[in-house]
UniProtKB/TrEMBL annotation, chain A:
Protein name listed in UniProt: Translation initiation factor eIF2B subunit gamma
GO molecular function: guanyl-nucleotide exchange factor activity; translation initiation factor activity
Subunit structure and binding partners: Component of the translation initiation factor 2B (eIF2B) complex which is a heterodecamer of two sets of five different subunits: alpha, beta, gamma, delta and epsilon. Subunits alpha, beta and delta comprise a regulatory subcomplex and subunits epsilon and gamma comprise a catalytic subcomplex. Within the complex, the hexameric regulatory complex resides at the center, with the two heterodimeric catalytic subcomplexes bound on opposite sides.
The protein's role, per its UniProt record: Acts as a component of the translation initiation factor 2B (eIF2B) complex, which catalyzes the exchange of GDP for GTP on the eukaryotic initiation factor 2 (eIF2) complex gamma subunit. Its guanine nucleotide exchange factor activity is repressed when bound to eIF2 complex phosphorylated on the alpha subunit, thereby limiting the amount of methionyl-initiator methionine tRNA available to the ribosome and consequently global translation is repressed.
GO cellular component, one term: cytosol
Lineage: Eukaryota, Viridiplantae, Streptophyta, Embryophyta, Tracheophyta
Automatic annotation (TrEMBL), chain B:
Name the UniProt record assigns to this protein: Translation initiation factor eIF2B subunit delta
Region (Disordered): 1-281
Species the sequence originates in: Gossypium barbadense
Record-linked PANTHER family: NAGB_RPIA_COA TRANSFERASE-LIKE SUPERFAMILY PROTEIN (PTHR10233:SF21), TRANSLATION INITIATION FACTOR EIF-2B (PTHR10233)
UniProt feature, compositional bias: Low complexity: 24-48, 192-206
Biased amino acid composition, Polar residues: 134-144
Family note: Belongs to the eIF-2B alpha/beta/delta subunits family.
InterPro entries from the UniProt entry: IF-2B-related, IF_2B-like_C, NagB/RpiA_transferase-like
Superkingdom, taxonomy of origin: Eukaryota
Stretches with biased composition (Basic and acidic residues): 246-268
One protein family per Pfam: IF-2B
């Protein structure tokens, strides 16, 4: 369909420390025992998009991700891995691979998106309007009220800053305003407001980081504005702001087409045809605006910024915070379990001791062993974990190769790979970094434990 | 004027001269062959004798039509000009032609009417041929000359019963079938010649004014000459029955297949399985219209969108057009047709023949797949059907020796030519024709938003004519507002009103210009719903109704009502008022109450030809009765280009 797909997988994310580390870059962070990147790739594969470019920050991370992809999707996807230096932002990453982009339209997906919204819907909207950029908006996920509120509340307070203020036209098809942070004042272009007449401001929508760009537009913007760092915070607002006074660069392609027809008569006919077509379609405010009041032919250049609003029933969350990580883990095993690709659900049944109960919404990796009288509720336990007797795990994520001693109580915590919990450890709302050893009998609450960097 | 016609007469004679060996034989034939056709009536002679006056009651329809049409003359009287009489003057004779033309093509025992009519048809034919070719330049003096002619034609109609009686007595026992078909053939040929002549003259006349049109004429001429020989030979060999059979077969092939009836449950299953879109539930649909394809409303849009990457066999361009149809972003017959053809063009450009397949067959099936996808998004319009038939016939007629790239470029240029000739040039011709009917001080009424009518109004405005426009509109589309906006931007003075107030504005109106989605061969105009009401009101007020329609939208189907074939719109659209969320009287009904509610949103209606004064088309201005002539001529032309 003449779409090129770029997956921005990212690398190390500061938001997610201590969960991610050099050994475990963010794309490989397991969500319900399979890496988060798997959800995006699976979704794309379902949509029959098999040629992908995966952009990873950092060479080491790229190697790890590449090895995982080639092992998992070996003959199903054709993936190019591109390593870009760290901290150049999403726009910088696209700029770095810009010469690889050849198709007419580019679909940019964030690698940490866990969603069941088909990317085709976005692409179809994009094509239908012949837009310069189309972005997917989804309703803000219900941030999971865990039983224990304190840390959740803290995270929520942090999340507030991430709300988007989004302005839509009355038909909810065009994006008129987007601001990432809540500022005191929101600047709205008077020109746009005048052309549209009515703008709907929404704060209950979230930019899902799935964009369809017209390649020519994207490349021009990246070339000219070389200070732009982020797609979401620089490129998209720029395109939205300038949609009614877009520079001539954005409309270069149609002009080129016209020039190719040398004959005056055929050009005349082309104009005739395009007028018929233009009159037939319902004009958007772009068209109305581009007409000059005196009725002469359009001189003002415009481009369209469209939105695709995912229906509220679909699932769409970005993994960009620890809270989101917990939420996604909970949802993927619970309500949104259709997201799990079938081959990754559960290994051979783990060995369970006597009187051990595993509640609903749990996931146990292969080769894990559990002692007697354990209780596991709404938790995910990775591969090859050894869990002693009388262990209680609620609302927690335990990654691979974790050893948990007898009598531990884990609530709402994340325990990364190769962690050793000695006997009678009590963790509540904690994150334990990879390879950490928690000494026997210690109690932690809402703390982040990680090995000291050497 | 005369000198000009003489100079042009030379090529015309040459063109006719191609058929000269046959044409002299034709003239006596009405007398000699018409009797031969009377054998079936003779076999049951008493019945047919009594039948024939019933089929064509000359006194009745003479008085009828003359009464009706001369009643229409007061309009010209009011106008006190020699121009409008052209509308009124040819009508009597042509409406006579119309009344007996439908049975003519149908049943055997109408041969009588045909023989009788063809004998006196000579007057009329010359008359109508002149009229069809009455061009903007020549329209005035022809119209003055026409008065006596049409009267003569009417008078010639009077001896019709006696003449037919005499012919019946002459009837001999020759083979009826043969005679019938040959006659039909001859008639078709004759009329196609006439249409071609009119077209060529229109082209010639026009080529004088714009520079672009002259290039198209040489392109158009050779095919017509090419199609001459086979037809001529079929006439020469008309005595052989085999030829007729093949002709019959071809005609049958051209007939559209029976349309799917959507209330037929036995067939629904298969279609459902094949379809890309979900069929909406058939709940709350009006009983009378259950046979029509249900409206695919906007809720299907995300569903189709989500399959964007999965339906990779559909070309992206076609897919885009389908989405636009479904979303209602693209409407209007011309625009939809152009968009579709351009999408096909793109698809053909990207096409490559798979191994072990031939381009002709594979591409045809591929186009078929595209078309069925588009039909799922929205039912095809007649114009699109014609365009698809053109494209498929072009593919089928590709020489096998062509390489793939050559074949592709040929097809692409064919599509370009179709768009340019049948739509763009046709529209330009229509502009010039119709602009002659607009005079200073006119009040023109139009309904909805037709792109041709809009161009006519703008063109006349550019010519400096002073007139006012009444734009009539109706819910739920409110397309008239779009038209109104564009007209006002250009500085025309407009009146805007809704359809339900039409009788109050009609008395001030001097002309009604309407667009059409299609025109059927019985002269019925198939257009946006509401058009029929406008035409009827205009007829009641004795206001001439001009329907502007390109000839590629003509269809050979005959339709008498707007029930058996139509399109359903979004039923919810009519229960809502745009921009008024507070008007929601139907929303708070309980489900049980809603069970008794059936919403009907029809998209089209059929206007009987009685209410149409003239059809402005690219072959000239014709009465609605002449549509079959153009349909036949056109069919030959586009199949044999």
């Amino acid at each position: 369909m003449d779409f090129q797909v770029v997956v921005l997988a990212g690398g190390n994310s500061k938001n997610l420390t201590p969960l991610v580390s050099k050994e475990l870059p963010k794309p490989l962070l397991p969500v319900a025992n399979c890496p988060v990147l798997n959800y995006v790739l699976h979704q794309l594969e379902q949509s029959n998009l098999k040629d992908l470019i995966v952009v990873v920050e950092g060479e080491d991370a790229a190697l790890l991700v590449g090895a995982w992809i080639s092992g998992t999707f070996i003959d199903r996807l054709h993936v190019e891995i591109a390593a870009v230096p760290e901290d150049i932002g999403t726009a910088g990453a696209l700029r770095a691979i810009s010469h690889h982009l050849t198709a007419k339209d580019i679909l940019v997906v964030s690698g940490d998106l866990v969603s069941d919204v088909p990317p085709g819907a976005l692409a179809a909207t994009h094509r239908r309007h012949d837009a310069a950029v189309t972005t997917m908006l989804c309703s803000i996920p219900v941030s999971g009220p865990l039983e224990s509120g304190s840390s959740g509340g803290k995270d929520k307070a942090k999340k507030l800053g991430r709300y988007n203020i989004i302005g839509l036209d009355p038909s909810k098809q065009f994006l008129l305003h987007i601001a990432t942070e809540i500022e005191k004042d929101a600047r709205i272009s008077k020109r746009i407001l005048h052309a549209v007449g009515q703008m709907e401001m929404r704060s209950d929508l979230m930019d899902a980081h799935m964009y369809a760009f017209k390649r020519s537009v994207l490349q021009e913007v990246l070339d000219i504005k070389d200070t732009f760092q982020s797609l979401k915070e620089d490129v998209l607002p720029y395109l939205v702001r300038s949609q009614l006074k877009s520079e001539a660069l954005l409309n270069r392609t149609p002009q080129g087409e016209e020039n190719s027809n040398e004959k005056v008569s055929s050009q005349n006919n082309q104009a005739f045809i395009s007028r018929i077509l233009a009159n037939a379609s319902t004009p958007s405010f772009h068209g109305l605006y581009s007409e000059n009041p005196d009725g002469s032919s359009s001189t003002r250049k415009t481009h369209k910024c469209c939105v695709y609003i995912a229906s509220s029933s679909s699932y769409c969350v970005r993994l960009n915070s620890i809270q989101a990580f917990m939420d996604i883990n909970r949802d993927v095993t619970g309500d949104a379990d259709h997201l799990l690709s079938p081959n990754n659900i559960i290994g051979p049944s783990p060995k369970l001791g006597t009187k051990t109960t595993v509640g609903p919404n749990c996931r146990l990796g292969e080769g894990s062993e559990m002692g007697d009288k354990c209780q596991v509720k709404r938790s995910i336990i990775g591969r090859h974990c050894r869990i002693g007797s009388h262990v209680k795990a609620v609302n927690s994520v335990v990654m691979n190769h974790v050893t948990i001693g007898d009598g531990c109580i884990i609530q709402g915590s994340v325990i990364c790979s190769n962690v050793q919990l000695q006997e009678r450890v009590v963790l509540k709302d904690c994150q334990v970094g990879a390879g950490f050893v928690v000494t026997a009998g210690s109690e932690y609450k809402a703390e982040s434990l990680a090995k000291k960097e050497k | 004027m005369d000198a000009r016609r003489m100079s042009r007469a030379v090529p015309r004679v040459r063109q006719v001269g191609f058929f000269t060996p046959n044409t002299p034989a034709q003239q006596p034939q009405p007398q000699s062959a018409a009797p031969s056709s009377e054998s079936p009536p003779l076999s049951d002679s008493p019945a047919s004798n009594s039948l024939s006056p019933v089929m064509i009651p000359p006194p009745r329809h003479l008085s009828d039509n003359l009464g009706g049409r001369t009643a229409a003359v007061p309009v010209p009287g009011r106008e006190n000009s020699g121009e409008l009489p052209t509308v009124g003057s040819y009508n009597p004779s042509e409406s006579v032609l119309w009344l007996d033309s439908p049975p003519r093509s149908r049943i055997g025992d109408v041969e009588l009417s045909e023989g009788a009519e063809s004998s006196l048809g000579w007057y009329r034919r010359s008359d109508s041929a002149k009229f069809a070719s009455s061009l903007p330049s020549g329209g005035f003096n022809l119209s003055t000359a026409k008065h006596p002619e049409s009267v003569a034609a009417v008078e010639a109609k009077n001896p019709l019963p006696e003449q037919s009686e005499a012919q019946k007595e002459q009837a001999s026992s020759s083979k009826p079938l043969k005679a019938k078909t040959t006659k039909a053939e001859r008639r078709a040929l004759q009329e196609s010649q006439r249409a071609a002549k009119a077209a060529s003259r229109a082209q010639a006349n026009k080529s004088g004014t714009p520079g672009g049109a002259s290039s198209s004429k040489p392109m158009k001429q050779p095919p017509q000459k090419k199609d001459g020989p086979p037809v001529a030979s079929s006439i020469a060999a008309s005595e052989r029955i085999g030829v007729d059979w093949s002709v019959e077969k071809e005609r049958k092939k051209d007939l559209p297949p029976p349309r799917k009836q959507f209330d037929d449950e036995s067939r629904g299953g298969r279609a459902k399985r094949r379809s890309v879109l979900n069929q909406p539930e058939a709940r709350n649909r009006v009983e009378l219209f259950r046979h029509l394809p249900p409206h695919k409303n906007g809720t299907q849009l995300p569903y189709l969108g989500s399959k964007f990457f999965e339906l990779h066999e559909k070309h992206p361009a076609v897919y885009k057009v389908g989405l636009q149809y479904l979303a209602g972003d693209l409407s209007g017959g011309n625009a939809r047709c152009i968009a579709m053809l351009q999408a096909f063009q793109e698809a053909i450009r990207d096409y490559s023949t798979p191994p072990e397949k031939t381009l002709t067959r594979d591409l045809t099936s591929k186009i078929g797949g595209f078309v069925s996808f588009l039909i799922e998004c929205r039912p095809l319009s007649m114009s699109m059907g014609n365009a698809i038939r053109f494209l498929k016939s072009r593919i089928a007629r590709l020489p096998l020796t062509l390489s793939e790239s050559e074949a592709k470029t040929t097809l692409c240029s064919d599509i370009d030519r179709f768009i340019n000739e049948k739509i763009v040039l046709a529209d330009k011709v229509i502009l010039r024709h119709a602009a002659t009917k607009i005079r200073d001080g006119d009040v023109l009424l139009t309904y909805g938003s037709s792109c041709v009518v809009e161009m006519i109004l703008l063109y006349a405005h550019e010519l400096g004519k002073q007139f006012r426009v009444v734009v009539v509109d109706s819910h739920p589309m409110l397309e008239g507002q779009k038209l109104l906006r564009r007209l006002l931007v250009k500085g025309l003075s407009c009146t805007y009103t809704q359809l339900n107030a039409i009788s109050y504005v009609m008395h001030k109106v001097t002309r009604v210009f309407l667009g059409a989605s299609s025109i059927f061969s019985n002269g019925t105009v198939y257009s946006t719903v509401g058009t029929a009401s406008v035409a009827m009101v205009a007829h009641a007020f004795r206001v001439p109704v001009l329907v502007c329609c390109e000839a590629y939208k003509f269809h050979e189907r005959v339709q008498l009502d707007s029930i058996c074939f139509n399109e359903l719109g979004d039923p919810d659209a009519i229960s809502k008022v745009p921009g008024r969320v507070d008007v929601n009287y139907l929303d708070n009904l309980t489900d049980k109450q809603k069970e008794n509610l059936e919403l009907l949103n029809l998209k089209y209606d059929a206007t009987p030809s009685d209410y149409i004064s003239v059809i402005v088309t690219d072959y000239g201005m014709i009465p609605p009765t002449s549509v079959p002539v153009i349909v036949r001529g056109y069919r030959k032309e586009y199949l044999l280009i």
